[in-house]
Amino acid sequence: MSAAAAADAAPAKGGKKLLLIILAAVVVIAIAGVAALLLLKKNAHADEDDWDAPPATQASRKADSSATPTFLPLDTFTVNLADRNAERYAQVGVTLEVENKETAERLKAYMPAIRSNILLVLSQKTSVELMDRSGKEQLAMDIMRESVRPLGIDLAAQEAAQADGRRPRARVHNPIVAVHFSNFIIQ
């Protein structure tokens, strides 16, 4: 092999190595980009699922399975319903399930305002609305919303945004895990 041929062969081998290194780098960058895209997409779906889940489900995801639930029973509510064709009333027992004992104590301090808000919600309902399960579930959501209002927590804006298919600007922390009915009589 002549000296000129050897000189031409050396750059060709170096050029092939450089081309392989560049090609390998491009493949690694492409794989990293696809992995990042998949992770971002997965996290976005997880956030959407959390926004669509009912409040009780969200709270149960966060709650420690070994933690004992804290319940705050309220005195029974007796209220005239908003029926126009007949005089009907409801007697409803409500128990709030809250995050912890400190939250229960805080809610007790606001109990007169909480009871007033719940009475106003109940008095706006008709017997037809409260007869089926969906009406009772809506009442539980209304009671939850009105129970935290005296604490300065506004769940109404969050509910309105979700109803319109929009995402609220910030997630509102709700210290009430669930609303339970201990008795429910309509006459």
From TrEMBL:
<keyword id="KW-0966">Cell projection</keyword>
<dbReference type="GO" id="GO:0005886">
    <property type="term" value="C:plasma membrane"/>
</dbReference>
<keyword id="KW-0472">Membrane</keyword>
<keyword id="KW-0283">Flagellar rotation</keyword>
<keyword id="KW-0997">Cell inner membrane</keyword>
<dbReference type="GO" id="GO:0071978">
    <property type="term" value="P:bacterial-type flagellum-dependent swarming motility"/>
</dbReference>
<protein>
    <recommendedName>
        <fullName>Flagellar protein FliL</fullName>
    </recommendedName>
</protein>
<keyword id="KW-0282">Flagellum</keyword>
<dbReference type="GO" id="GO:0006935">
    <property type="term" value="P:chemotaxis"/>
</dbReference>
<dbReference type="InterPro" id="IPR005503">
    <property type="entry name" value="FliL"/>
</dbReference>
<comment type="similarity">
    <text>Belongs to the FliL family.</text>
</comment>
<keyword id="KW-0145">Chemotaxis</keyword>
<dbReference type="GO" id="GO:0009425">
    <property type="term" value="C:bacterial-type flagellum basal body"/>
</dbReference>
<comment type="function">
    <text>Controls the rotational direction of flagella during chemotaxis.</text>
</comment>
<feature type="transmembrane region" description="Helical">
    <location>
        <begin position="18"/>
        <end position="40"/>
    </location>
</feature>
<dbReference type="Pfam" id="PF03748">
    <property type="entry name" value="FliL"/>
</dbReference>
<keyword id="KW-1133">Transmembrane helix</keyword>
<keyword id="KW-0812">Transmembrane</keyword>
<keyword id="KW-1003">Cell membrane</keyword>
<keyword id="KW-0969">Cilium</keyword>
